[in-house]
Amino acid sequence: MALLIESDCINCDMCDPECPNEAISLGDEIYEIDPDKCTECVGHYDTAQCVAVCPIDCISKDPNHEENEAQLLAKFTRMHG
């Protein structure tokens, strides 16, 4: 399942540089996660790095992009070979 940055994001810029897939970018008002690039850090780390560094815990699972670990790993493999 891709992750989602919720509306209470304070634009602290902690998450963007931590994303190994470059899935996070500044949107019109808050940071956003591209679900096509988000693997929840599967293939890179044991935990999602954006969630680990978010000071206000505003990153959650995106219910509109449900994926299991095998699907996330397959996405990682497609992106990184």
Automatic annotation (TrEMBL):
Keyword ATP-binding recorded: no
GO cellular component terms attached to this protein's record: cytoplasm
Keyword Aminoacyl-tRNA synthetase: no
GO molecular function (one): metal ion binding
Keywords: 4Fe-4S, Electron transport, Iron, Iron-sulfur, Metal-binding, Repeat, Transport
Pfam family, one: Fer4_7
PROSITE patterns (UniProt xref): 4FE4S_FER_1 (PS00198), 4FE4S_FER_2 (PS51379)
SUPFAM superfamilies xrefs: 4Fe-4S ferredoxins
Domain of life of the source: Bacteria
Record-linked InterPro entries: 4Fe4S_Fe-S-bd (IPR017896), 4Fe4S_Fe_S_CS (IPR017900), PSI_iron-sulfur_center (IPR050157), YfhL-like (IPR047927)
Domain 4Fe-4S ferredoxin-type, first and last residues per copy: 1-29, 31-64
Matches recorded under PANTHER family: PHOTOSYSTEM I IRON-SULFUR CENTER (PTHR24960:SF79), PHOTOSYSTEM I IRON-SULFUR CENTER-RELATED (PTHR24960)
Name of this chain's protein: 4Fe-4S dicluster domain-containing protein
Source species: Thalassotalea agarivorans
